[in-house]
Amino acid sequence: MLFGEHGQFLTRLEKQTGTRLMSRGNILLIAGEDESAQAARAAILALWDRVKAGMPVGPGEVDAAARLAISADVQTSGNALAQLSDPRAGLKTKRRTITPRSGTQARYLEALAESELVFGLGPAGTGKTYLAVAQAVSLLMQGSIERIILSRPAVEAGERLGFLPGDMKEKVDPYLRPLYDALHDMLPGDQVTKRLETGVIEVAPLAFMRGRTLAHAFVILDEAQNTTPMQMKMFLTRLGEGSRMVVTGDVTQIDLPTGQKSGLREALTILRGVEGVSFVEFTDQDVVRHPLVGRIVRAYDAADRAREGA
């Protein structure tokens, strides 16, 4: 359970920590530079605690343990590493318990719990939207909020989709599919359907937010880099009594027409230092999808820096 079938988890840890891991029965030998060996040891012990607690261990948990163990942010990552193996920690949803898989994710979860408005910024695959939806579902189950509202600007990502048939819901659903996917990962399908039908969970394009006041709700705006300044101001001023807002986006992935200013980029400048607003910035080191995604993000970032320096 700890080493994985044919030692596959040990192989993953070796690649991420730069060590050699050799098992002899119930004895594990760790060879490498002191700092790397200590990181591998910390990851192994956290995963062993997870096994002893009866919690599942898979490739995602192994990658998370390694990422947290080698993080430079020792205190935050240490706390997150402890949460990884604590069945009482993390966000509880109907289908799973979500724990942070990087130091930045741990800070993000703290911000989601403490601040009324949180900006989650960074590349794809870092868990910005997923963790925000998890926090919303957890608060809904606790009765701390009455509804969840998920929104995205309906902007085509460099493509022309043309005329979409069907009613309004069928027209906008393709843009909102990632939000539905996150919901289904945390709630049984029949409960998602029921809550959507009753309005307890609402998934709507950003244009539908105008003129509303959103009280006692958890409101998430995804792909916010594709909002205009006017749309962003409109959205942020919908915040009502007993509500929380999360805005997620990546300012390097703007799909607005050339020359159109991003509302997210402007908000980051205007709202810095405003009381009650938190900013959490992810990097390629926080990518928690397939390890190749992190390498792809770093390659594109390097290419962008090379073009800017040319």
TrEMBL record:
Name of the protein in question: PhoH-like protein
Family membership noted in the UniProt record: Belongs to the PhoH family.
ATP-binding is among the record's keywords: yes
UniProt entry tagged with the keyword Zinc: no
Lineage: Bacteria, Pseudomonadati, Pseudomonadota, Alphaproteobacteria, Rhodospirillales
Alphabetized UniProt keyword annotations: ATP-binding, Cytoplasm, Nucleotide-binding
Annotated SUPFAM superfamilies: Eukaryotic type KH-domain (KH-domain type I) (SSF54791), P-loop containing nucleoside triphosphate hydrolases (SSF52540)
Domain PhoH-like protein, residue spans: 98-301
One annotated Gene Ontology cellular component of this protein: cytosol
Molecular-function annotations in GO: ATP binding; RNA binding
InterPro entries the record matches: KH_dom_type_1_sf (IPR036612), P-loop_NTPase (IPR027417), PhoH (IPR003714), PhoH2-like (IPR051451)
Subcellular location: Cytoplasm
Domain of life: Bacteria
Pfam families: PhoH
Organism annotation: Niveispirillum cyanobacteriorum
